[in-house]
Amino acid sequence: MVSVQQWTGREASALRAALRMSMRAFAEHLGVALRTVAKWESRGTETQPRPDTQAILDTALARADSAAQSRFEAVLFPERKSARPADYETWTEDIERAVVCISRQDFPFASILLNRWLGSRAPHQLNDKGLYLYGRSLVLLGDIQRDQGAILGPLSARHSYLTARGMFTELDIPRRVAQIELSLAVVQEMSGQLESSARHYELLAGDERLSPRDRARARLWVGTALSKEGDNEYATGVMVEATRSFEDLGEPEDWSVAHQKLALAHRGAGDLKQALHYIGIARTTGAVDSPMQRVRLDTAYGHILLSDAATRNDGLSVLDQAAQVARQYGLSHQLRSIEDIRKDQQG
Questions:
Q1: What does the DSSP 8-state code read for residue 46?
Q2: Residues in CB range of 8: below 8 A, 6 or more apart
Q3: Which of 171, 172, 263, 323 has the smallest count of CB within 10 Å of its CB?
Q4: pTM for the complete prediction?
Q5: How many other CB atoms are there within 10 angstroms of residue 89's CB atom?
Q6: Contact indicator for 143, 157 with CB cutoff of 8 Å
Q7: For every one of its 347 residues, what pLDDT tens digit does the chain have, with 9 covering 90 and above?
Q8: Is the CB of residue 302 less than 8 Å from the CB of residue 318?
């Protein structure tokens, strides 16, 4: 619902028109004098109702039916006429379709679905519902940019997430703000800011704005960042704790991913036996419904195999397969990770 920060005669007249009342009926509806309504009509923005009358107008607007509220908004903000409820329904449907496309790594079509709205709407022209959908669309665009490796710069995941965070902060939706902060911590980790991302994850692991599942994910990612820093002993302890949380929460996919992360931490610590044990669990229990999941799992497995001279050729073969899928679906960040692993082994 549109709200009025400061009523003037203009807004009061717009409300009367939206309610389709005569000046006399409107005065009786509000409980004010007819001459007061007449003054609003004649003086417009040059007159402001008294504070107690401002509250009466707020109540009248809040109690108006949805059709009257839409008419009120159309009178005050004619530039918003393109943002009709029917548009919002279609926008919501496109967001849902984009989520499915992103899960399948169909980034081009997902981008089309999102940009048709982001490119045709200016945030300052939208009401709260429109701002919410704009923010959701920006977050999904950020997810696409992140998965394609565009993490920093003006056309990047970080920029999209920051803009969306500002919108959800304005809308006062703490859960969405916290989820975006978790995504921003992922961007920090991907850009090599391992220590700061680990601190960010640790704060979010105890953040009550997030769901128990997201807090467990933050705890797991503390471990991944620390493992990349070489602090494998502490990292594995944190990951084990997160793994137990996923089991308690009944989240099999996250539980499997946690075993994949544990495998890499043990590889970093030089314990290849444990690394193979955990990656074996991840490979037999993890879903590989999407190209991204398949590439991540194969990259981890190939990395571990490369660490042993006896299985080096097998590791290279697995990485080749992962790289082929990454290229096919435009997973630039994953492809760079594979190339970095190969370089490290050659060095």
A1: G
A2: 40, 44, 45, 46, 47, 48, 49
A3: 172
A4: 0.71
A5: 10
A6: yes
A7: 567 888 999 999 999 988 999 999 999 999 999 999 999 988 888 899 998 999 999 899 988 887 788 788 777 776 555 455 558 888 999 999 999 999 888 999 999 999 988 887 778 778 889 999 999 999 999 999 999 889 988 889 999 999 999 999 999 999 999 999 999 999 999 999 999 999 999 999 999 999 999 999 999 999 989 888 888 888 898 999 999 999 999 999 999 999 999 999 999 888 999 999 999 999 998 776 788 889 999 999 999 999 999 999 999 999 999 999 999 988 888 898 999 888 877 65
A8: yes
Scanning the structure block, which residue is given the tokens 């949380």?
245
Burial (CB < 10 A; 0-12, 13-18, 19+), residue 236, is: buried
Which residues lie below 8 Å from residue 109, measured CB to CB, with a gap of 6+? 101
Task: Classify residue 257 as exposed, middle or buried by CB count within 10 Å of its CB (0-12, 13-18, 19+).
Answer: buried
Residue ranges in 20-125 assigned as alpha helix (H): 23-30, 34-43, 51-63, 66-76, 85-103, 107-118
Question: What is the helix (H) or strand (E) element at residue 320, kind and residue range?
Answer: helix 312-328
Q: Retrieve residue 141's tokens.
A: 């665009």
Rounded to whole angstroms, how far apart are CA atoms 186 and 323? 22
CA 296 from centroid of its chain's CA atoms? 21
